[in-house]
Design a protein that fits this description.
This protein folds into 2 domains: 3-121 and 272-341, 3-Layer(bba) Sandwich (FAD/NAD(P)-binding domain), CATH 3.50.50; 123-269 and 355-419, FAD/NAD(P)-binding domain, CATH 3.50.50.100. By secondary structure, the chain is α/β, with parallel strands linked by helices. Helices cover 33% and strands 23% of the residues. Strands 5-2-1-11-22 form a 5-stranded parallel beta sheet. A 4-stranded parallel beta sheet has the order 15-14-13-19. A 3-stranded antiparallel beta sheet has the order 6-7-10, with no helix packed on it.
């Protein structure tokens, strides 16, 4: 009997996993592979800050799940996970409604022999008063689109009135830092497209970080370089600054200061979706499901990968919630599922830190390569780091399309630049 493998979440881990299993098992009829996601298309999450500012057109860069499924021998199901019947091995999907609230698909279930949870993470507001009501997040394509729409509206108004534009970002991690740089780049480009009264001198961007430095994943000297580059652009960086509350006008810090802004963004910390804590599986305080070194949960039929899993790697440390972690987990889980179907024992996952790269838009990039491999890191910055940062996305595309299609997409992108604006303007 053909085994049924259901993957929930088509992000940096789920989509490459579905692609790999479809090519290895689906094509040969050895397994029935189904990918489930709440959206009809995929955008690589590390690029949401570029979608938000219009640096990329998500409609052009998006992967259509149904088309990709057809090419890679798996099935796609549009829906949101509502729960799991672990005894009957059924995934329960909530009713799917359109933008008007009309039910398009009823509640339904999918049978599985093996289930892979890869539903990622969301912003953690740490129960800070006012954040959910007044701040924008960048956890999904819809949220990035919402930021883009509001950003363009405020730029239009600021240009018409010849007034200033202010944006405050809480969180000095990769998302907050990269978004701050992209905002400056976007405003500089908008001046080329009719916003003559708006330039970077009228832009105020604040990055607020509770810790003593930006980007804790980087070495202190690299974090200091990033801070200096942001300040050179005109970004105000507030370190050791904890936000106490948010309201419609801005943030109030723990020491009573006010940081007001037209747009408030929360990019501090992550947590797994709360529903994971209701599945009856062991989980931690941020809802991540605890897994064994094989990436199996305490249920022998449920694997968990990516940001929503807590996988120990020794010394009381856990694998960090990053795109490279999810991609490595996807590759390992694909091999383990093939071993299961072949009657072979599972192998433990070994995380390899390939380092961290942070892009400051078109201005520069900094980071460290190789991470803990060979006992040290190689620091890179400038154009070399920028090229390496871009190559990370190209490698993600290779995992989805293969080398030939990725090369064609790269070529098509070059041609698009000849007649399309350098910024998405609508």
């Amino acid at each position: 009997m053909t085994k049924k493998i259901v993957i929930v979440g088509g992000g940096a881990g789920g989509l490459p996993l579905a692609s790999a299993l479809g090519k290895k098992l689906g094509r040969a009829g050895k397994a029935d592979i189904t990918l489930v996601d709440t959206c009809a298309s995929h955008i690589w999450k590390p690029r949401f800050h570029e979608v938000a500012t219009g640096a990329i057109d998500a409609d052009l860069d998006a992967v259509d799940y149904r088309a990709h499924a057809r090419r890679n021998h798996y099935h796609f199901e549009l829906g949101r996970m509502q729960g799991i019947d672990r005894e009957q091995r059924k995934l329960i999907l909530a009713p799917h409604c359109n933008a008007e609230g009309e039910e398009v698909l009823p509640q339904r279930s999918l049978d599985y022999d093996y289930l892979v949870l890869a539903i990622g993470s969301q912003g953690n507001d740490f129960n800070t008063p006012g954040v959910r009501e007044h701040c924008l997040f960048l956890d999904s394509r819809a949220q990035a689109d919402r930021f883009h729409e509001r950003f363009l509206d405020l730029c239009l108004r600021a240009n018409h009135r010849a007034e200033n534009l202010s944006i405050a970002i809480v969180g000095g991690g990769a998302t907050g830092v990269e978004l701050a740089a992209e905002i400056h780049h976007a405003v500089a480009l908008l001046k080329l497209y009719g916003h003559e009264q708006l330039d970077r001198s009228r832009l105020q961007v604040d990055v607020i970080e509770a810790g003593p430095s930006l980007l804790p994943v980087l070495k202190p000297e690299l974090a200091a370089t990033v801070k200096a580059e942001l300040e050179k652009m005109g970004v105000a960086v507030h370190l050791d600054t904890k936000v106490q509350s948010a309201d419609a006008e801005g943030f109030t810090t723990a020491d009573g200061r006010r940081i007001d802004a037209d747009i408030l963004v929360w990019a501090a910390g992550i947590k797994a979706p709360p529903m994971l804590a209701e599945l009856g599986l062991e989980h931690n305080r941020i809802n991540q499901i605890v897994v064994a070194p094989t990436l199996l949960s305490e249920d022998p039929n449920v694997f968990v990968i990516g940001d929503c899993c807590a996988c120990a790697m020794g010394d009381n440390k856990f694998i960090p919630p990053r795109a490279q972690s999810a991609q490595q987990m996807a590759k390992h889980t694909a091999k383990n599922l093939q071993r299961l179907l072949a009657g072979k024992p599972l192998e433990d996952f070994r995380y390899r830190d390939h380092g961290s790269l942070v892009s400051l838009s078109n201005y520069t990039a900094v980071g460290s390569l190789m991470g803990s491999l060979r006992g040290g890191s190689v620091f890179v910055e400038g154009w070399l780091a920028r090229m390496m940062y871009i190559s990370l996305y190209r490698m993600h595309q290779v995992a989805l399309y293969g080398w030939l299609r990725t090369a064609m997409l790269l070529l098509a992108g070059r041609f698009n630049r000849l007649w399309r604006p350098r910024l998405k303007l609508h």
